[in-house]
Amino acid sequence: MTLPRQPDDDLPPPAPPRSALTLRLWLAGFGVVFNAVAAWLCVRAGLTWLAVLLVVIVVVLIVDFAWVVHRKRRGDPG
Question: What is the pTM (predicted TM-score) of this model?
Fold first, then answer.
């Protein structure tokens, strides 16, 4: 006795799930450049409080960038 065919019998097995580390790396890099330029423009425009806020964001993005690089070197997928 044969079992009835399932509609997905001809499909290849699904690929293993991957993390989005590479996308996170690109987004952190873009964020560093964008916010650093914006902070510099704010300093030039006299908006010191906004420049300080953007520099804090740049520091957070640099830490995130370094952490993602560490995870990629460790061998995490993505």
Answer: 0.73
Per-residue pLDDT of the chain (78 residues; tens, 9 = 90+): 666 666 666 777 777 776 789 999 999 999 999 999 999 999 999 999 999 999 999 999 999 999 999 999 998 876
Give the list of residues 6+ apart from residue 37 with CB closer than 8 angstroms, or none: none
Q: How far apart are CA 8 and CA 43, in angstroms?
A: 59
Helical H segments across 8-77, by residue range: 21-45, 48-74
Calpha distance 3→32 (Å, rounded): 57
